[in-house]
Amino acid sequence: MLPKIDPTTTQSWGKLNELASEEYDIRGLLSDPTRVAKFSFDSKDFHFDFSKNEISDEILNTLITLAKECKLKEGIDAMFGGQNINETENRAVQHVALRADTNDLVKRELNKIRNFTTQLHNGTHKGYNDEQITDVVNIGIGGSDLGPKMVAHALRPYWKEITPHFISNVDAAQTVETLEKLNPATTLFIIASKTFTTQETITNAISARDWFLNNGGSQGDVSKHFVAVSTNEKAVNEFGISSTNMFEFWDWVGGRFSLWSAIGLSIACAVGYDHFESLLSGAREMDDHFHKTDFEKNLPVISALLGIWHNNFRRYDSMAILPYDHRLRYLPSYLQQVDMESNGKYIDRSGNEVSHQTGPIIWGEPGTNGQHAFYQLIHQGTKIIPCEFIGVVNPAHKHQDHHEKLLANFFAQSEALLAGKSKDQVKNEVGSDANDILKNSKVFKGNRPSTSILIKELNPHNLGKLISYYEHRVFTQGLIWNIFSFDQWGVELGKQLSKPILSEIKEGKEGIHDSSTTSLMRRYRDMRA
Ligand code: F6P
After folding, report:
1. Active-site amino acid positions
2. Pairing relation of β-strands 135-139 and 187-192?
3. C-beta of 209 in contact with ligand 1 (< 6 A)
4. Ligand 1 contact via 195 beta carbon (within 6 Å)
5. Lowest mean pLDDT among 10-14, 350-354, 430-434
6. 3-class DSSP string for 329-375
C-alpha cells in the first residue's frame, strides 16, 4: 500500500510556499560559477541540466524533505516490491518487472515475441501467397498505440524489412488512408488491446478483417495475418483469433506503461527482437537508478520535484516537451497520456478532494517546427511555461550541417528564454528614434525556466532509459500529490454516454439530454446527406 499523506500538511510545504513568494533571477543565479555543476547530472550517454530553473540549494533541499515527509522511498519500494498500489483497481503496478529479466511469465512471453519476429524476418512465417510479410499494422489506441508508435518512429534507422503502421482512431479516414497503401498478402495485423473491448480498436479490427477478406484473403488465411495482444483471451477467441496467435500480458501492466510488454510487438517486428531487448535494458538501467539512488542525485526524483515546484508553488500550470529531434516527434503526445492520464486527478488516496494542484498540462512539438508556431507565447506571452528541451548529439544521418543548425536552435532557444532582451539592447538595435510601441514590443523579459537533456545517441537502449525516466517522474509526482496514478476513471463517463447516443443516432430516436446536446444531435440528423 502507498502512504496516504496530504502533502499540504507537511512542514516543507509551508516552507516552500514561503520560498515561492520570493523573486528569482535565474540569470543572476547563473553567475555563481558552481551552479551549472551543482544542478547538472551525467548518467551514461545522458546529460541533464536543471540549472536554468528557479531553484537554489535551499529550494531543492526543501523539496527533497517534502519527498521524505511524503514517504517517497516507501512508495518506490512498494511499487518495486509488487504491492497492490493501484488500490482502486486492486492491482499491482509491475511495468518495471517487464524489463527486470527475472519474471518467468515475462520471459515466456518475450520468448514468444522473439520466435515470432524471427520467423517474420527470416521468412518462415509467410503470408497466404507464400510471400514475405512486409508491413505490420498495429491496431490499438491510447497505451496500445502511443508507446509503440512513438518508439517505432524514434527507432526508424533500426527498421529491418518490415514497415510498421498504426491505426488508432475510430475515424475510418485513418483506416482507409493506411490500408489503401497496403497489400493484404504481405500485411500482418496486430490487434493490440489490454481489455479487447475498446470500441475504436474492435471497430477498426473488424474493418481490417473485412478489407483483408474482400481483397484476396480467405477465412482460412486469417490466422497467418491476424494476431492479438491482450489480457483477455476469451474476447480474443470470440473475435476469431486463436490462443496460439495471441500474445499475453497481465492486469498488473497499466495500458500507458505497456510498451515493454507484448504491446511492443509492433516495435519488435520493425526493429527486430535484439533491439527490443536493448530498449528493455535501457529502461532497466533507469529503474535501478531510480530504485537505488539517493534523492539528491536521483534524476526522475529531481525532475519530479522541480515539476512540483513549478506547478504547486510557482503556479505554472503547463509544461512544454520540446524534442529537437524529428525521430522523437511523437514523444509529447506519448507523454501526454503517461502524465495526464496518470496524474490528472482531484481525489486523493483517502478519497477526499485535494486542495492542491495535481498533474500539469503536457504539450509540445519537435523543434524547430514549434519555434515557428507557438514559441512566441513561450517567450513573450503572459504565461510562464517551463520548457524541457531534448537533443541528440550524434544523429543517425550524415547531414552534419542540418544537425548543427538544429542544435544551435535548441541552445539558442534555451538561452533566449533565460537571457531575454533588455530595453537598452532594443534601443541599440532599432535606434532611439524608433517609437515606443515598437521598442516595447521587441523587449523579452527573459528569466523563463527550462531544463535541457542531451543524449549522446538515440539508440534503443538510450530511448528505453529516457522513457523510464519519464515514467518514474510521473510516479514520483503522483506519490507526493497523494493521488492514485495508475487508474483512469476519468475516461469512463464519455465512453458510457456515447453508448445510448450511438443507439439513438442509429435508430433515429431522441433520448433525454441537456438542451445543447439535443440540439447538436438534431442538427447532425438534419445536416446528414
Ligand atoms: O480509455 C483509456 C484507456 O483505457 C487507456 O488507459 C488505454 O491505454 C486505452 O484506453 C486502450 O485500452 P485497451 O488497451 O484496453 O484497448
Report:
1. 341, 372, 495
2. parallel
3. no
4. yes
5. 430-434
6. CCHHHHHHHHHHHHHCCCECCCCCECCCCCCCEEECCCCCHHHHCCH
The answer to whether 278 and 461 have CB atoms below 8 angstroms apart is: yes
Kindly report the pTM of this predicted structure: 0.97
473 lines ligand 1 (CB under 6 A): no
Quote the ligand 1 centre to 145 CA distance (angstroms).
9
pLDDT confidence bin for 369, thresholds 50/70/90: very high
Determine which residue's CA is closest to atom 2 belonging to ligand 1: 491
Local structure of residue 39 (DSSP, 8 states): T
Euclidean distance between CA atoms 364 and 322, whole angstroms = 6
In angstroms, the CA 334 to CA 362 distance is 10
Rounded-to-10 torsion of CA 20, 312, 293, 71: 110
C-alpha cell at 407: 542544435
CA torsion angle 427 428 429 430 (round to 10)? 50
Q: 167: which strand partners?
A: 139
Mutate to test the pocket of ligand 1, among 194, 259, 261, 334 (most ligand atoms within 8 A of CB): 194
Which residue bears the cell 490499438?
140
